[in-house]
Amino acid sequence: MKPTLLILAAGMASRYGSMKQTEGFGPNGETIMDYSIYDAIRAGFGKIVFVIRKDFADAFEQVFEQKLQGKVETKYVYQSLDSMVGDFAVPETRKKPWGTAHAVLCAKEVINEPFAVINADDFYGRDAFEKAAIFLQSACNPELHAIIGYDLSKTLSPNGTVSRGVCEVNEQQELVSITERTNIYAEGESIVYEDTAGKHEVPYHSSVSMNFWCFDDSIFYLTKKMFAQFLNSFGQEEKSEFFIPLVADTYIKDELGAIKVIPTSSLWFGVTYKEDAPGVQASIDALIQSGQYPASLWGE
To answer: What is 68-87 written as a DSSP string?
Structure first.
């Protein structure tokens, strides 16, 4: 059975200032998602599921349906405040959906096979998709999931600080924990982060999560159970968020199984800030020049 790629594209893009998910960066207007989808198809993925906001569903279909028709199966699911909440009464002051794990849960009814999860606005690279596909097709099961680990030094932005999930990995290359670090930046030959206690150094080649997960579809059961608990505990808070690492942490600590950390040689890049856009375009141009991608991604 071919694995599925789940793309989280419902974010409001508040720091970027526009609907970056459908902005063109390639020579023919290709989005970052186009490159992820292209890499996924050639790695052996059989279905693409987009998690989007219903109010820009038309824009998404206009961008993707024509180019992907006949190449891969596509599905669309909507993340909204009332998705998957059951009888919970959403507070009127709440404006933003419930986070990345909630976005994954919104796809529960359309995924019945091993699947990968990525962000819409991150470029992950061919090697990452190939390794994810191999794992999903040969090793993934209810007691073994995975995360693609990126080298921290290759995931920074020259235009501002970033937030990264720094992975603690054991000798078996299994995830022990993810610690969210904010305000990370390069300082000379070091990488540091700042918090209320001051400035701290992070190991230069730390393995970090860029939200590229590989799950057996049994993860939906745990996610649904935890989301109900999350709403009960934090649902009245205006900005509380239910993140994928919370599910992963519970999975590990409750000894339900292991999460393998799969290192990748791929270079990550993304558009955290609007100023990152020219660098993204230059990086894509360089990959095309080196022959890793065709100039016209879909042969149009």
So the answer is: HTTTSEEEEEE--TTTT-TT
Residue type, 23: E
Its CATH class, for the domain covering 4-144+209-289, is alpha beta
* CA 96 – CA 80 distance, rounded (Å): 8
Q: Could you tell me which residue, 215 or 30, shows the higher pLDDT?
A: 215
Rama region for 255: left / alpha / beta (φ>0; ψ in -120 to 50; rest): left
Annotated domain spans of the chain = 4-144+209-289
Contact 270, 121 (CB under 8 A): yes
Residue with the bigger pLDDT between 90 and 163: it is 163
Indicate the pLDDT class of residue 23, thresholds 50, 70 and 90: low
What's the pLDDT band for 11 if we cut at 50, 70, 90? low
Could you tell me how far CA 6 lies from the centroid of its own chain? Answer: 9
